[in-house]
Amino acid sequence: MALKDRIKQRSFSSAQQEAMLSILTCADALNRRMEEVIAPYGITGPQYNVLRILRGVHPEGHPRHEITSRMIQQAPDVTRLIDRLIKQGLVVRGKSNEDKRLSLTFITDKGLDLLASIAPTLQQFERHLRNTLSQSDAAALARLSDVLRESL
Prior knowledge:
Layout lengths: L2 H4 L8 H24 L6 H13 L6 H7 L7 H10 L3 E5 L7 E5 L1 H24 L2 H17 L1
Antiparallel strand pairs: 1-2
């Protein structure tokens, strides 16, 4: 369905406005679908994002500011988000070996197992995206998204 029809708007003030609104509605749809995919596993999108980030440096950990800087969607309170993951046993806090004042967050084996159990469902979702966009369209979309994001 064309964006005009979806939001019941006859025209846009510019192609750029239409592109911006199209990106926003697409991002919302992707976020909602991602939440649907991971909800059965008892975590949210931002929590999945933190686990994914920590898996990438496992067995090392990250300080909160590094997690925040790597998040796909900026979360307002990463400390509380991490606290909820700790309560679920998916991450733990510890100290840096180099600087004992620095608090790091580490993914646990339970967190790694959860990500492994989510992987087949996410792979199915990614296959759907691959079937929807060709390689060249996906590359063009990524490039254009980078251009726009960097301009902001």
